[in-house]
Design brief:
Length: about 350
Amino acid sequence: MKIQSVAWKKGKMVLLDQTKLPAKVVYVSCSDVRQAREAIRVLKVRGAPAIGVAAAFGLVLGVNNKKIRNYAQLKKKTDILFKYLASARPTAVNLVWALKRVKNVVLKNKHENIAAIKKLMLDEAKLISNEEIASCRKMADLAQGFIKDKDTILTYCNTGQLATVGLGTALSAVYRAKQLGKRIKVYACETRPLLQGARLTCWELKKNKVDVTLICDNMAGYLMQQGKIDKVFIGADRIAANGDSANKIGSYSLAVLARQHRVPFYVVAPHSTVDKRLPSGSRIPIEQRSGKEVSELFFKKPIALAQVKIYNPAFDVVPARLITAIVTDRTVLRFPYAQKIKRVF
Ligand code: MRU
């Protein structure tokens, strides 16, 4: 079943509102850049490749809604919108990567008229979207080398059709395995505090008839100890030049558990997630979000005293040495990663 997280329709960006899932399937339409940025900030659209595509369309909305008389005005407006959208979420590099691509169209087409440049910007955003779909297919195929019939896979957060504009990153591997007739079981960690695993991964795997079982995040070690997990598959929001990979908070704990129990740990991500400018994961900016997401968002009453201090980092970094392989849309990488990342990206 095809799930469309982000689309461009009749001059607007249409998003499947992921904050409403799984209770309601609601599509929201963004007609200006402010709505686009807010949708990214509050996670109506989320997942590294999907927010890249949404930001690219957001930039197009921003210039389309403005009376722009000459190239200097367009260039200035693009710079302002770039910063505005880039600040919506700091960790997933796909967002800045996609914005740079659309901005480069402006820089390279100085001699075109304004209407023509705006059209080229939209073409570029659509191209990014189409390329991300193709990347998902490629990752799905390359990951098959690591998936056998009857495997039980543990996954984290949501890395599927909702997190991308195609089949997914880590979950694309599961979908392709199923298409190939492999009998796969998935354990989905609920993924506190925003519950992307419980709300989104279980929803989309169910829709696609994948055998999925939901567990609380703190049950993963027990399952590994019992020998119930054959491999872990996760995505990434930013991969540094040495292979250190940022992903949803809790990914590091899973990687440590997997190493302790000798369970292979795979990261699946497209080239838009690789940030060669950062030598290691310690330089990846980690998004800090409101404490209310921890204590209030999904509860009828706050679960902690109002005065309690809450720390809510949204991502952590899995050190490269704990990653068995990184499956990208170009090739599969094995530790040590630095030389290969330099060569391939
Ligand atoms: O905060 P989110 O829901 O945007 O976080 C998403 C993840 O951490 C995903 O695992 C990640 O983007 C990689 S898979 C597309």
